[in-house]
Specification:
Order of helices and strands: HEEEEEEEEEEEEEEEEEHHHHHHHHH
Largest sheet: 9 strands, antiparallel
Number of helices: 10
Strand content: 15-25%
CATH topology of the largest domain: Immunoglobulin-like
Shape: rod-shaped
Radius of gyration: 51 Å
Structural class: alpha+beta
CATH class of the largest domain: Mainly Beta
Oligomer: single chain
Length: about 475
């Protein structure tokens, strides 16, 4: 049989399920961010949108041109070989800048830019980062990374010559140089500013070129380049992740609240069980005093309590109410402690006076229990369990629905046990006789509905009568 979960277990299961789902979503966002951050990205100028002199991409903008927008050019003397032959005539020198601006909400990191040379020229200097040259002036490609600021500290493997301004690196059309930004000079990473002036969102790369046989107003157009980069975004930059963190916090608070509440409930239940045990022991002790006066009714109160519990359960009462009705039924005959033993144990017919004394146990029992407030309505069973549905009972002669339901239940249970027990004046009755008595008194002595329920309990074998074996 499948075990039914308690409310606490169901709520715990719901909260734990919500926590697992939330954590799985957080892990999903984390791996999404990890994949986003590790993705190798490449964009060429030809893929961008041209806005004036800028190339606009979804994540950044790039501009390559003379510094300040003006060539600011100067003429350099002709270049001669070692034999004194002129190789190139006067050259136009210009300072160029690469301006890259992070326009995204992510960090632009690990970026490098390969610029393809549009015509023959020399690169003479660059600052901040280093350059990787890809040169084919001799018919074969030569590749070398140079820091043109410190050219004297390394051997140059490329074609070059040195003048008073430093090394001159010749590049043909189609050759390229890769600018490798300097992290020390804050060219990388480029962080979205969000209005914060203390972070760097723009890198400005400077380099000097010389183009031979051109006028001072000449501007070389670098219209093809390739940018290789990564975009970095912390999971904390994702609103969904923040929402999930908040949700996880809420679920954890609910979980802790549930656990703390359940611990308090368990403590209360333990206390209630302890209190109930004290009440049961107190009632049982008192019942023993009563039954000591009449050994023939020993166990009667416990059986009436048991029958009343089963009836209440059959009628759909909660477990708490079933227990309360059982306690009330236990004390229904407590008033008999006031009845003399001679009358209780008399085998013959009672006189009218003796019968009146017997009847007084209902009111006496009610008076005894009036200060017993631990169990709600405990005096009700003692006072009204001998009332009849037709109004011919005692002590008040009330009838039908006027009789409290708990008293109607106990009344049926009391009569059933009386018929099903040996008494000093007669032996127990048989099953058929008991059932006939119950059915014949439906709507008369007993509430018809309660009788129907007790008959069902008898037929189900939950209540054994007439000498049957359980």
């Amino acid at each position: 049989m499948k075990r039914k979960l308690s409310n606490f277990q169901r709520n715990m299961l719901r909260v734990l399920t919500a926590i697992v789902i939330t954590v799985c979503c957080m892990i999903g966002v984390y791996f999404f961010a990890l994949n986003y951050n590790s993705a190798d990205r490449t964009i060429r100028f030809s893929e961008g949108k041209i806005d004036g002199e800028k190339y606009v991409f979804p994540e950044f903008t790039v501009q390559i041109g003379p510094r300040g927008g003006d060539s600011g050019a100067w003429l350099k003397d002709p270049i001669y070989d070692e034999a004194g032959n002129e190789i190139h005539g006067p050259s136009v020198g210009t300072i160029y800048e690469i301006v890259i601006y992070n326009a995204s909400d992510s960090t632009l990191s690990d970026w490098e830019m390969e610029v393809f040379v549009p015509e023959f020229l020399w690169i003479n200097n660059a600052w901040n980062g280093t350059m990787e040259f890809k040169q084919t002036t001799t018919g074969e490609e030569r590749v070398q990374i140079l820091d043109l600021r410190e050219y004297t500290k390394q051997e140059i493997l490329l074609d070059y010559y040195i003048d008073h301004t430093g090394p001159m690196i010749p590049l043909n059309e189609g050759d390229s140089f890769v600018y490798l930004p300097s992290q020390a000079d804050n060219e990388m990473p480029l962080v979205p500013t969000d209005g914060d002036k203390d972070v760097k969102d723009t890198a400005i790369v400077g380099f000097i070129i010389y183009v031979p046989d051109q006028t001072l107003d000449y501007v070389a157009v670098f219209d093809e380049a390739e940018i290789r980069y990564h975009m970095q975004k912390s999971v904390w930059d994702y609103p969904l992740f923040i929402t999930l963190i908040v949700l996880l916090g809420i679920w954890l608070i609910i979980l802790i609240t549930l656990i703390v509440s359940q611990l308090r409930v368990n403590k209360l239940l333990r206390q209630q069980k302890h209190d109930a045990k004290i009440i049961e022991q107190s009632i049982s002790t008192f019942i023993n005093f009563i039954e000591a006066k009449d050994p023939h009714t020993k166990g009667h109160s416990e059986r009436v309590a048991q029958y009343s519990y089963l009836l209440a359960q059959k009628m759909g009462f909660s477990e708490r109410e079933c227990n309360r009705i059982s306690y009330v039924a236990l004390m229904h005959d407590c008033g008999k402690i006031s009845v003399p033993v001679a009358i209780l144990q008399k085998k013959g017919k009672l006189t009218d006076e003796e019968y009146e004394i017997i009847k007084s146990h209902t009111t006496y029992g009610s008076q005894m229990l009036r200060d017993f407030t631990s169990i709600d309505g405990i005096s009700t069973g003692a006072l009204y369990h001998h009332e009849r549905y037709d109004g011919k009972g005692y002590p008040s002669g009330i009838k039908g629905e006027e009789i409290p339901l708990i008293a109607r239940i106990i009344g049926v249970a009391d009569s059933l046990d009386a018929m099903n027990s040996d008494r000093c004046y007669r032996p127990r009755l048989g099953r058929d006789v008991i059932i006939k008595e119950l059915l014949d008194n439906k709507g008369k002595q007993f509430d018809a509905n309660v009788v129907d329920y007790v008959i069902e309990l008898i037929e189900e074998g939950k209540i054994v009568i007439g000498g049957e074996q359980a």
